Amino acid sequence: MPVLLTQAQIAEGRARILAVAERQAVEIGLDRLSMHGIARALGWSATALYRYFENKEAILAAARTAAFDRLSDRLEAAMAGPGDIWARSREVGNAYVDFAFENPQSYRLIFEFAQPPAAPDSDLALANARARANMRGYVEQMVAEGAIDADPSLLAHVFWAGLHGVVSLQMAGRLGPDAPPFETIRRDMVRRIIRSALSPSARASHQTGARR
Amino acid sequence: MPVLLTQAQIAEGRARILAVAERQAVEIGLDRLSMHGIARALGWSATALYRYFENKEAILAAARTAAFDRLSDRLEAAMAGPGDIWARSREVGNAYVDFAFENPQSYRLIFEFAQPPAAPDSDLALANARARANMRGYVEQMVAEGAIDADPSLLAHVFWAGLHGVVSLQMAGRLGPDAPPFETIRRDMVRRIIRSALSPSARASHQTGARR
DNA sequence: TTTCGTCAGATAACGCCGTTATCTATGATG
DNA sequence: CATCATAGATAACGGCGTTATCTGACGAAA
Questions:
Q1: Crossing angle, helix A152-171 and helix A123-144, to 10 degrees?
Q2: What pLDDT is stored for residue B12 in this prediction?
């Protein structure tokens, strides 16, 4: 009978393709990524890629999945760090922003406007859900610990959307030269939202305590 | 001597090309827009387009400019409407969101991540500046009228980024099925930011007055 | 009125893209 | 050792953005 690719070989092939794709996305930009180019870098023919991925979109979906997971890793690491919930939440925010600007191609890949919907229960959908859970988790904990008082899911999405808004305006170069710097906008936004949700008990200790 | 295109003919040619480009962007999506396709719709050869625009990117830049101007028109109309500054500011926000979801391709065109920088003093740069001014203007007026108290530019950018964040998450389909609806997130975000900036005098009249 | 120069626009072509059809060589199984 | 399904190469398709080249039409000059 034939010589079948083992599961391990398939996995390795996919991993090699993804590695090249991610490197090229960084080097030449997401939109210049091409099947021919990836194959060239591997010393393969372009058609060989189709033994490992159904088409280009499948490669992008896998790269998106990996990007989601890397983002989640960083958010979870920040959340698992030292300090009280205030400090850790701040670190989660920093991790998000750092990820975005250290990996703009990954951030773009994840949040690009035109995206084919992910198949339900696909790896991509799961990675997306994990990232969303991480974007919610720290807010839920703040509410659970009584630091702030709000509908956790709603407030989490407000935080997330706000952060994503500044990040993506900055990335798209839509903050003109007359605009305040990115970090100023971000800090002011977060400060306003936080204060709007401070629990009565936290209001005394945090609000005054945080500003010496 | 030769038969030169008059300024008017050039302007008309550019207008026809743009009209087709914008229609096709709506019909088939921004990324399927092509020089060949635009020319086909015009009954021209693809190369004829190069008599009117330097290249495809120039067409996109012109379309971006037009999109910016349409957005500005709507923002200005909302700002010029009836009612006090609270009502008009609310309408500016509605105009922004309505524009985004009624013209997703235009919104995408404007706020897409990867954008070649606009040439300084180009029509595009001017249209961009006009739109940014409109995103600032209503906040400046609120501050001027004493309704709220903040650095106008900073607060305007916080509002804008927040709104853009919810809009673009929604457009990219990144708000999962477990997320609160778009309008809920938007309203909550705007409410929180507004309250954080209410001037002491407005706090009494607005905060209580606005909730019956 | 004929010639001529110049430019608008068409045709052809280039190299790239994503993808499919077809071929070839391989190596485990009978 | 012969067979045969398959991995991967080669070739090809239609489409892309863009450039080179050709063609034809018109205003100025003769």
A1: 120
A2: 95
Quick: pLDDT tens for A156-173. 999 999 999 999 999 999
Candidates B157, B170, B191: best to mutate against A (most CBs of A within 10 A) is B157
pTM beyond cutoff 0.90: yes
Q: Quick one: tokens of A206?
A: 């945090």
- The Cα–Cα gap between A101 and A104 comes to 5
Residue in the block written with tokens 């839509």? A174
The pair of structure tokens assigned to B205 is 């009249």
CA distances (Å), B20 to each of A37, B17, B49, B169, B183, in order? 32, 5, 12, 29, 33
pLDDT digits (tens, 9 = 90+) for B108-162: 999 999 889 999 999 999 999 999 999 999 999 999 999 999 999 999 999 999 9
pLDDT at B204 over 90: no
Any B CB within 8 A of A132 CB: yes
List chain A residues with CB under 8 Å of B192. Answer: 158, 192-193, 196-197
> Rounded to 10 degrees, what is the CA torsion of B34, B37, B43, B48?
20
**Contact criterion met (CB below 8 Å) for A197 and B192:** yes
Alpha carbon distance B108, B89 (integer Å) = 24
For A182, the closest chain B residue by CA position comes to: B157
**Sign of torsion, CA A114 B189 B210 B139?**
negative
Start-to-end Cα distance in chain B: 75
Phi-psi region of A121 (alpha: psi -120 to 50; beta: other; left: phi over 0): left
| Nearest-Cα residue of chain B relative to residue A185 | B158
Nearest residue to B69 (alpha-carbon basis) of B110, B14, B104: B110
- Give the tokens for residue B209: 């007055």
Nearest to B96 by CA among B24, B28, B161, B23: B161
Separation between the CA of A23 and the C1’ of C25 (whole angstroms): 32
* A33-43 residues labelled b (16+ CB within 10 A) or e (exposed): bebeebbebbe
First to last CA, chain A: 76
The tokens 């530019």 sit on which residue?
A: B153
Contacts B171 to A, Cβ<8 Å: 113
The partner residues of B198 in beta bridges, in order of sequence, read: B148
Is residue B150 within 8 Å of B131, Cβ to Cβ? no
